[in-house]
């Protein structure tokens, strides 16, 4: 039995992966944006161990969440699943960061840095990362900004950096496909079941194909990704910029 923490598991792919993992007999800790959503998550995933609450658009709440995760013990796998796609106007998080940048890029960075590394790290990216900007220009300067595509490239770069720096940790990224969740919309054409099976497989399978690091998957197969994410210089620049924004340093192994 493995113990898994999943961000954004009150709904969508996070909730589906959680339910599947519980059904397979694993211990799952859920996460939601606030206490009310955390309670709802627990009722939607019967058998889950607990549900933690933190708004990932707030760097302070995200840091507190990392401390709470560490307090409740160690994990075999963490699925960095929470994300936003459509943001109204120039919405910002508690510290004034654009919402999309805060939730999709900075929150997984902070959690990756501050939670004691599990054996497996899994990041939800998207095929849209292919049009993300590898120059990382948006993260520079006083008013950092990211498009959805940029933020999904950031997740890939973060996973690649963890895979390169942390010996003994399997860190991988996946594209779930365009699937009909709240984010994907009712008309999304891809298979919903396949949209959560890859993260479940990467979290708990002992098949040799799942025990790899620094890879990018779609439907349990390695897929084409932006090769710039393999560039150690790009990874280091990304980690430095996230440190400047969050005040949190990426730990050495
Ligand atoms: N669906 C697709 O077609 C698709 C395609 C490619 C990649 N992805 C990626 O897959 C992941 C899951 O997406 P999904 O389709 O399952 O989306 P979803 O149904 O919208 O679920 C996203 C989850 O993230 C949570 N979340 C959003 N903002 C948060 C915040 N500030 N603090 C805490 N939690 C927050 C949401 O909480 P609430 O329920 O309370 O809003 C929800 O539980 C995302 O990273 C997404 O980018 C999805």
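^ structure tokens above, recovered residues below v
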């Amino acid at each position: 039995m493995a113990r898994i923490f999943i961000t954004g598991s009150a709904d969508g792919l996070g909730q589906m992966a959680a339910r599947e993992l519980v059904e397979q007999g694993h211990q799952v800790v859920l996460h939601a944006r606030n206490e009310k959503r955390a309670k709802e998550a627990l009722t939607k995933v019967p058998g889950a161990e607990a549900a933690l609450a933190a708004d990932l658009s707030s760097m302070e709440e995200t840091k507190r969440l990392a401390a709470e995760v560490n307090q409740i013990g160690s994990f075999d796998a963490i699925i960095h699943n929470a994300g936003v796609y459509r943001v109204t106007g120039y919405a910002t998080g508690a510290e004034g960061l654009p919402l999309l940048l805060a939730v999709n890029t900075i929150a997984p960075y902070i959690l990756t840095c501050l939670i004691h590394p599990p054996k497996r790290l899994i990041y939800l990216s998207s095929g849209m990362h292919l049009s993300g900007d590898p120059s990382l220009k948006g993260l520079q300067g006083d008013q950092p900004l990211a498009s959805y595509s940029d933020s999904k490239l950031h997740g890939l770069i973060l996973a690649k950096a963890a895979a390169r720096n942390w010996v003994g940790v399997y860190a991988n990224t996946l594209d779930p496909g365009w699937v009909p969740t709240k984010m994907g919309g009712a008309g999304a054409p891809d298979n919903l079941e396949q949209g959560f099976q890859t993260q479940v497989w990467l979290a708990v399978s002992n098949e040799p194909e799942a025990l790899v690091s620094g890879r990018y998957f779609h439907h349990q197969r390695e897929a084409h990704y932006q090769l710039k994410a393999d560039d150690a210089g790009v990874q280091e620049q990304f980690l430095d910029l996230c440190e400047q924004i969050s005040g949190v340093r990426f730990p050495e192994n």
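The helical segments are 12-23, 35-44, 59-71, 99-114, 148-165, 192-204, 232-246.
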